[in-house]
Specification:
alpha/beta, Rossmann fold, seven-stranded mixed beta sheet, two-stranded parallel ribbon, 6 helices, 11 strands, 33% helix, binds 5-O-phosphono-beta-D-ribofuranosylamine
Length: 208
């Protein structure tokens, strides 16, 4: 067992960060959130982090809009190291992370994606699934590699798509599963039960 020191990156509401915080608080996840960073100055994730007494920083990612590269990336890596992070948790972070960050934390960068990958990578996976006419949608927690939503899959959970679903109702149903899946994936990581073999993530059995 290894107590994880998490650096969380997000751009939005921060409900996944909150679910991780709650799992730590109720003792079901052996981790601590060392720092929360956002590329959006007034993102709710930063308010939630401050309310929980966590260090919360705005990360200036200019001049780029969709990727974390250059000075913003360097500052992010510097802060992750300064705060002693061993694991990077992307929780609604709306930028592509580049090899420099991935190489600084090999197989220690995780992401949550609101679709059953490899279907519907990119933005608003729930809307893509609904528009496609899927009867089942879901969530994926995966290690991040240099592609977009292509890294080895740790956990997936499915939800039904209902006849009267809107993008909002489907996303809400997916988010309920997200809030269980992310802490679960981190529990497996903390327990040292995950290993990456090619495209597959092996989950070792619970030690006797
Ligand atoms: C989630 O649906 C997540 O899967 C996606 O972005 C959303 C973030 O939600 N990557 P929140 O900021 O954690 O509430």
């Amino acid at each position: 067992m290894q107590k994880l020191r998490l650096g969380v990156l997000g751009s939005g509401a921060g409900s996944n960060m909150q679910s991780i915080c709650d799992a730590i608080a109720d003792g079901s996840l052996d981790a601590e959130i060392a720092i929360v960073m956002s590329d959006v100055k007034d993102a709710k994730i930063l308010d939630r982090a401050r309310a929980a007494g966590l260090p919360a920083m705005w990360l200036d990612c200019s001049p780029w809009k969709t990727k974390l590269e250059g000075p913003g990336e360097d500052e992010c890596i510097r802060l992750l190291r300064e705060y002693g992070c061993d694991t990077v948790v992307l929780a609604g972070f709306m930028r592509i992370v580049k090899p420099k960050l991935l190489q600084a934390f090999p197989w220690r960068v995780l992401n949550i994606h609101p679709a059953l990958l490899p279907s519907f990578p990119g933005t608003a996976g729930w809307r893509q699934a609904l528009d496609y006419g899927c009867k089942v949608a879901g969530v994926t927690v995966h290690f991040v590699d240099s592609g977009t939503d292509t890294g080895p899959i740790i956990i997936q959970r499915s939800v039904p798509v209902m006849e009267d679903d809107t993008p909002e109702t489907l996303h809400a149903r997916i988010q309920v599963q997200e809030h269980a899946a992310y802490p679960e994936a981190l529990r497996l990581l903390a327990a040292g039960r995950l290993s990456v073999e090619g495209r597959r993530v092996r989950i070792a059995p619970v030690p006797e």
